Amino acid sequence: MSRILVVDDDPSIRDVIRFALERAGFAVAEAEDGRTAIGAFSAAAFDLVVLDVMMPELDGHEVCRVLRRQSAIPILFLSSKDEEIDRVVGLEIGGDDYLVKPFSPRELVARVKAILRRANGNTAHLKPEPEPTNTKILRHGLLMLNSDDVCVTWADQPIVLTATEFGILKTLMRHPGRVYTREGLMDGAYAIEKIVCDRTIDSHIRRLRAKFAAVGAAPIETLQGFGYRLGPCR
């Protein structure tokens, strides 16, 4: 049973989320503010965090930054802000998905399940293109991706990715050199089609590039007007 930490300062919203998630078979813990959430995360193991952005004292963005310094746990942001820049900021600081209030409990559960499937490396629900026979371990030059262990290395240096970043990179590694449109990457990395703006892929790509740059690598190439591809990894 997957454990979900729900962080929101509104008890009525926490009640709605808890009811929906428990009905779907998840174990749920709650935190009413950012500091409590960080304490709860340090004290117990969770598989995903549902995190409200607008909270007093320590908001969701700050909580996300703290969690990202110690974990790649999937994070689903909740917010009443619906501007594209707000979604992009949430994704660029480490969120995996972004859901706008008011939301449907059914959609929230669907997104949680989708994120967890990506985090667990289960892509059977997607509509994938034909893959090489061995898809457990993908290698391309100095780059290696292991689906069983959900790990990525560059020249034996580990790179910690979120579930969505892992899905995007795995899609690119299936066919190095092939150009993928944003829509193509969404189909490979997201379990539910079109649940996010395709421009959010750009945010995830920027984060991927920053993580590779930290180990002296730049494997992802942009073809202006077409999309992205995995270049030589040497």
Secondary structure elements and pairings:
Layout: E1 3-7, H1 11-23, E2 27-31, H2 34-43, E3 48-52, H3 60-68, E4 75-79, H4 84-92, E5 97-100, H5 105-119, E6 137-140, E7 143-146, E8 151-154, E9 157-159, H6 163-174, H7 182-189, H8 200-213, E10 220-223, E11 227-230
Parallel strand pairs: 1-2, 1-3, 3-4, 4-5
Antiparallel strand pairs: 6-7, 7-8, 8-9, 10-11
Number of strands: 11
- Uncertain stretches: 122-134, 191-196
Any idea how many domains?
2
* Spatial separation of the terminal alpha carbons: 41 Å
Count of helix runs = 8
Spatial order of the strands forming the largest sheet: 2-1-3-4-5
Main sheet record: 5 strands, parallel
Nearest-angstrom radius of gyration? 17 Å
Give the helix/strand class: alpha/beta
Strand content: 15-25%
Q: What is the name of the CATH class of the largest domain? A: Alpha Beta
CATH level-3 fold name of the largest domain: Rossmann fold
Element order, helices and strands? EHEHEHEHEHEEEEHHHEE
Shape: globular
Estimate the mean pLDDT confidence. 83
